[in-house]
Specification:
Blueprint: E1 2-5, H1 9-13, H2 16-28, E2 32-34, H3 44-48, H4 56-66, E3 73-76, H5 79-96, H6 99-109, E4 112-114, H7 115-122, E5 135-138, H8 142-147, H9 153-159, E6 165-167, H10 182-185, H11 187-204, E7 208-211, H12 214-226, E8 232-235, H13 236-241, H14 254-259
Parallel strand pairs: 1-2, 1-3, 3-4, 5-6, 5-7, 7-8
Helix pairs in contact: 4-6, 5-6, 11-12
Protein name: (Fe-S)-binding protein
InterPro entries: Cys_rich_dom
Pfam families: CCG
Amino acid sequence: MRIGLFATCLGDTLFPEAVRSTAVLLARLGHDVVFPPEQTCCGQMHVNTGYQREPLPLVRGFAEQFGDASIEAVVMPSGSCAGSVRHQHGIVAERYGDAALRAGVAGVQAKTYELSEFLVDVLGVTEVGAYFPHRVTYHPTCHSLRMLRVGEKPLRLLRAVDGIDLVELPEADACCGFGGTFAVKNADTSTAMLQDKLGNVAATGAEVCTAGDSSCLMHIGGGLSRLRSGTRTLHLAQILASTRSTPYVMQTDQLSEAAR
């Protein structure tokens, strides 16, 4: 299958390893991964903040970059960005676009997936040859859980990882408090929600807290580093890309170091 990889803004600027791991994983499974070089932001932050007309050029650009008929699927290591493409792009195109844009958006929406749902629903795999001998807990991000409804798919993938010690996160479905600009506009509430999440992560004794969105991991990871908890955050794609022959080497995350 020829797969178009969407990096996302956060992946491109702060967490390129999550994007790189997604490409490595998909290629290892036998697929042709292409990276449209002119891709930009999906426009999620604009829509979420109430600026629905402003991301029109971004929506148009996404449809153009990934609308190529040779690209059979569009995959991204982000539930929030996948949710934006599948749900928000249509709203923007319908309200502010023309017929051509609406058709282009609809075509791309139909083949856009978050990584875990693509692996399980489209490729039909849960065992991807991963090896990760560490104690791990999983945080289901709000967009993946409530908008995309990926459900148990990430957990099914993690349970099949060789060597992993997967432990359940208490109150897993509670929001971590990030929510993009929510964390800025409602800092006190966001911080209180984060403290609850950090307490639940600590209760697992996990070496790693993983999720399908780098944004939530950035928020949780910042809190964990300030507590000097010793627990690291790692994107789901990085765990799934790790194998016995090329294992992920646990090291202090540079972002966590900067936050200390």
